[in-house]
Amino acid sequence: MKKRWISTALCAAMVAGSLAGCGLKSPDATTAAPAATEAPTEAAKAEGDAAEESKTEAADTEAAADTSDMPEVTLVMAEVNPLDTIVGQTDTKFKETVEELSGGKIKIDLQASGVLGSENDVLDTMLGGGGTIDISRISAFALTSYGAEKSVLLSIPYTFANRDHFWKFADSDLAPEFLMEPHDNGLGVRGLYYGEEGFRHFFTVKEVKGLDDLKGMKIRVQQSPASVAMVNAFGAAAAPMSFGEVYTAIQQGVIDGAENNELALTNNKHGEVAKYYSYNKHQMVPDMLVANLKFLNGLSPEEYQVFKEAAAVSTEVEMAEWDKSIEEAKDIAINQMGVEFIDVDVNAFKQKVLPLHEKMLQENPKIVDFYNHIQEANEKAKGGQ
Questions:
Q1: Disulfide-capable partner of 214 in 236, 325, 337, 355 (CB 3.0 to 4.6 Å)?
Q2: Residue 130 pLDDT level (bands cut at 50, 70, 90)
Q3: Distance between alpha carbon 10 and the CA centroid of its chain, in Å?
Q4: Across the strands, what pairs with 78?
Q5: Do the domain assignments include residue 333?
Q6: Is the C-alpha dihedral spanning 298, 303, 309, 313 positive or negative?
Q7: Is 38 domain-assigned?
Q8: pLDDT at 67
Q9: Structural domain boundaries, residue 321
Q10: Residue 339 contacts residue 271 (beta carbons within 8 Å)
Q11: What is the C-alpha to C-alpha distance for residues 21 and 380, in angstroms, rounded to an integer?
Q12: Are 134 and 154 within one domain?
């Protein structure tokens, strides 16, 4: 089974194998295409699969055996979502896999539901490599406020055509450059892998069937320049605030809605106060697992292998459960909360913010080449889901 995950170290080893299929290469990459080979017979394929599985099991056993010399350590991991959400379950699988593969030598203290603060609070604690938090799953949006220019590209509306297009980016040799950017900028953290966030759409107190319906509305956005500019371009008034304030702000009439994936309706009860959900697919911004360099730089190769494998396993869990979680959330929102889901003219929304692409590229010239490569792949990905 293909492991759809990304790690800064593993990507370098995977470049030759992953790029040909995804069509996304670093602007400076000049990797030659591999020679064609004859398709194997079914018997040969089965034998090869069995051999590969055997190798994997042997490698896992060897990795487990190497943990005998590991020192015992407990790492603190921050998560703003509850543990019973798909994101929380993914984090739990990561924790369990790290502890299992390390033979219990590495333990993770998973602090969920925002008990260690908001996303920005957590990042402030982690930046510089110090503090009391070692690992956290954050939105790639969050890093744009700390000078991460490449992450700005991920927040530009309609960067990705569909989920398949995003995962091809995540499996390409572009992704490690984005994951390493916080480290390269001296922030004291780096990304380990990407996670699923799905498309973001609007949920509001009044129907939004088109752009005209957004005029005059106050819409909560993340504290990201791209998100603020996008909502303002749509004709609404952007209202940046922390995620934890959204429910009360809608309930009290401070804002008229917000934007997120469908899970926010049920996991955070936003469907109780916002009864309309409009599918305009304006952004697909991934999560990123970041770790501080203070602990990362102290890992042995065997210890780092544990984290790479845990990243692979947890991302597989998320990929397998994501669609199911979305459908369950929609069912609850419709039948228990009375939320109405509305299909809109996505192209009309997209055309409205295309000038924003040009503006943001002018303000961030370092991402132009990356943007062009992603858009080339975007054209190939059209028509997917």
A1: 236
A2: low
A3: 18
A4: 111, 136
A5: no
A6: negative
A7: no
A8: 67
A9: 10-19+59-198+285-328
A10: yes
A11: 12
A12: yes
Residues 188 and 291 in one domain: yes
- The answer on 191 and 137 residing in a single domain is yes
pLDDT per position as a tens digit, 219-230 = 999 888 889 999
Do both 122 and 246 map to the same domain?
no
Q: Which of 341, 44, 320, 328 is nearest to 203 (CA)?
A: 341
Enter the tokens of residue 381. 């990905």
The string of pLDDT tens digits covering residues 317-367 is 998 899 999 999 999 999 999 999 999 999 999 999 999 999 999 999 989
What is the CATH classification number for the domain harbouring 299?
3.40.190.170
For residue 67, CA distances in Å to 55, 71, 192, 362 come to 19, 9, 21, 49
pLDDT at 281: 96
Q: Could you tell me if 264 and 199 are in contact, meaning their C-beta atoms sit under 8 angstroms apart?
A: no
> Is 29 contained in some domain?
no
Decide if pLDDT at 199 tops 70.
Answer: yes
CA atoms within 13 A on the CB side of 376: 12
Distance, C-alpha 235 to centroid of its chain: 27
204, 210, 215, 219 alpha-carbon torsion, rounded to 10°: 30
Same domain, 95 and 141: yes
Confidence of residue 183 (pLDDT cuts 50, 70, 90): very high
- Could you tell me if residue 186 is inside a domain? yes
* pLDDT above 70: residue 117: yes
What distance in Å separates the CA atoms of residue 29 and residue 32, rounded to the nearest whole number?
9
**Separation between Cα atoms, residue 202 and residue 216, nearest integer Å:** 14
| DSSP β-bridge partners for residue 240 | 221
